[in-house]
Structures are given as C-alpha cells and as structure tokens.
Write a structure and sequence with these properties.
- The structure is a homodimer.
- Chain A is mainly α.
- Chain A is built from 8 helices and no strands.
- Chain A folds into 2 domains: 51 residues, Arc Repressor Mutant, subunit A, CATH 1.10.10.60; 146 residues, Tetracycline Repressor, domain 2.
- In chain A, helix 3 packs parallel to helix 6.
- The longest helix of chain A is centred in the middle third of the chain and has 28 residues.
- The radius of gyration of chain A is 19 Å and the shape is elongated.
- Chains A and B meet through helix 5, helix 7 and helix 8 of A and helix 5, helix 7 and helix 8 of B.
- Chain B binds a DNA duplex through helix 1 and helix 2.
DNA sequence: TAAATTAGCGTACAGTTGTAAGCTCAAAAA
DNA sequence: TTTTTGAGCTTACAACTGTACGCTAATTTA
C-alpha cells in the first residue's frame, strides 16, 4: 500500500477516534493525546507524525464539524425549494442533523462556550456562515432591509442552536415537542421583524 | 477563634479560590482539587474536610451562581417598577450583572453545555427559574395565555443567555452594540407573540 | 540496486493528579 | 482539669499525562 494513503488512513482513524470519544461526558479539552492514540490503535508518540498538538487535532475536528453544518444548510435549501414551508423544513432538517451527527453537533456546542479561545473563535466563524447565509436568504425572499434581516437571522440562529443543545440528549418525544415549540418561536421572530420593518 | 467560624472561613476560601480559577480558560472539570487547595491556602487533603468531591464543590458553585441570578431578577423587577421600559431595563440590568459577576455567569454558561450531567441539570434548574418567573410576569402584565407566554419567555431567555455568552469577553463598545441589538430582537419576539395571541 | 525518507514503535522521564494513612494540637465537651 | 473531637498537616503511592530520543522496517527516490 502506498505510503501516502496509509498516512491518510491513520490520520482518519485519529480523527474518528477523537469524535468517538466526544460523547456526552467529554470535551476536546478533556480528551488526552494518549487516549486518542489508544483508540486510534497507534502509539502515543506516533500521534505527532500527524498533528503538532492536541489543539491542532481539535481545530481539524471543528473544521469538519463546520463542513457538516454547511452541508446541512445546503440540504435544507434543497428541501425548501421543493416546497413545505421554510421554518418547518428548516427545523425538521436541523433536528435530523442533530440525530445523525450527534457528536459533531455536540462538539460545536461545547466548544462554542468552551475553554479554548481558538476553538471558540473557530466555532463562531462557522456560526457566522449560518448567519450570513440566512440573512441573505431572508433579504432575497422577503425584501427586508439588511439591518433587520440580519437581526432576525441572528436571533433565529441563536434560538435554533439553544434548542438544539436541549434536544441533543432528549428523548424522542421530547425532541418532537422541542421542534414544535421552536417553530412557533421562530414564527414570533419572523412576524416581529416584519412588523418592525413596516413601522 | 471559634472552630465553627474558622471552618466556615476555610470553606469560603475554597469556594472563592474555585471561582477565581474559573476564568476565560478554565471550567469546573478542568480545575483540580490540588489547584483549588493551593489557591485556598490549604493542604490538598484538607479539602476533604469540607467537600466529598470536586463535584460537590462544583454543585455548590452552581448553587451560588443561581443565587446571584435570582438576585439579578429581583433587582430587575425593582428597577422596572420605577419606570423605564421592561426590555430596556432588563437588558441593562443583565449586562451590568455580566460585567460585575463575570466568572459567575461564565460558570453557568460553560456548565450549561458542559461535560457533567449533574452540573448541566443544576444549571438547567436555575434557568428554569428564570423561565417560570418571566412567564408569570408576562401573563400578569399582558394577559397572554400561558402557552404563548411560556413560549415567549423561553425564547427571550435563550436569546438573552446566548447574547450574554457573546458579551462576556467582548470589548465595552461591542457590549453596547450587543445590548442594543438584543433589545430589538426581544421586541421582535414580544410583538410576534402578541400577534400570535390575536389570531 | 543502493540510498534516503519517514510512519510507527518502545523506552524513559518528569510532572501532575486523586486520595489513603496517620499525626498534631487547639477548641469544645465532660 | 481531663478527655474527646476534628481541621489541617505531612508523607506516600499508584495512575496518568505530554513528549524527548532513538530505533526499525518498509516505501520512495536516485
């Protein structure tokens, strides 16, 4: 097997090992290099052949999580285009994402308020993508002026993420309830922003 | 000096030491017993005379933080009663709180999405207080029916906490901007909820 | 084919952690 | 006054951490 390929594979198994460790009870700052290496099936010191630091691995994970988030947006837009109500479709898509990418979303949430300045900044950047895209979308579809569209988008994203945090470890029925409540609350924001733009 | 009093003092110095360690870069799960003991000026093993665990200390801290939060609410209500607009006064009071009790609010934020199930539950309980009080207040002052009042209150609290997280380490000018944006966004929610209650 | 590169390993070390065991000595109780 | 209690201490240990150093062996390059 080619050397390059093998290296990529090991790198992947390190990343996967890290994600698998980020369960309900662990954060990036609480997983150790040795632990990751153990799960990845390599010697602790071999870790350094792939990452300078645990921090460098952490940033890689945040990047991957951000990528997943952007794919989520794309998927939501596709679904919206084929009808079904913007808020409804978005919330449903988001909730599916949380279910399927449990640890990925958890990583973003935790590091968003976490202890590492670099990680926080990295997560914030990903959330900003969300804000910008949603602002643009709102302006394009409703004609709201940019300041109000931006306020609306930001409020919506914050609400969605907050509820996502709550839904993450909730039972299925509870998740349904949360989703329905979220839809109503998003409706509040949309209607309120509309009213503000009219006065 | 009385034995009882001395014990209370040491306990306090342990708690204070812990709070002082919870700066921008540390969370409850990342501070060690030995470190707390060092700052508190006692031997590591003496810690056990006061707390069973680091976790027991953690829960104590969350309790204290919750207490501070409830005092915040009381203060906000007092100020509102003496005029000045509910949203305006509340946001200003909240922002002052974040400034003055930096590490206290940081603790709540971090542990809200943190790695310890017990801590998360404890923080959630404190936030629930907020929700209930705000729901009651909304019902009493606007006559909104409970389901809508509750949705509104929950959305507002989530938005306030999210913005608080952002404001925590922001520069003073940025904090002002965040406060003004938050006020507008809260207005969206209030207006949206009002509209929902009318249809 | 011979030489160079490099992913991964084993060993090693100093630093940190939580906490068990038992001592001291001042305050409280008898 | 004598006895009991208990907050705080010192010492000790096993477990874990990150990472420096140098080796091996297989792939890649010359």
């Amino acid at each position: 097997m080619s050397r390059q390929l093998q290296k990529l594979r090991t790198r992947r198994s390190i990343i996967d090992a890290a994600f698998s460790l980020l369960d309900e009870q662990r954060s990036l700052s609480s997983i150790s290099l040795r632990e990751v290496a153990r799960v990845a099936g390599i010697a602790p010191t071999s870790f350094y052949r792939h990452f300078k630091d645990i921090d460098e691995l952490g940033l890689t994970l945040v990047d991957e999580a951000g990528l997943a988030l952007r794919q989520l947006m794309r998927q939501a837009r596709l679904r919206i285009a084929s009808g079904g109500g913007v808020i409804n479709t978005s919330v449903e898509t988001f909730m599916e994402f949380i279910n399927d990418n449990n640890n990925v979303f958890r990583l973003l949430l935790r590091e968003h308020t976490g202890t590492s300045v670099a990680f926080r900044a990295a997560v914030l950047r990903e959330i900003q993508h969300f804000n910008v895209e949603l602002t643009d979308y709102t302006m394009a579809t409703t004609g709201l002026k940019s300041t109000i569209a931006n306020l609306q988008a930001e409020a919506m994203v914050k609400l969605v993420f907050s509820t996502g945090a709550e839904a993450l470890d909730a039972a299925p029925e509870r998740k349904k309830v949360l989703a329905e409540r979220l839809k109503l609350q998003l409706r509040f924001i949309v209607d309120g922003a509309l009213k503000a733009s009219q006065s």
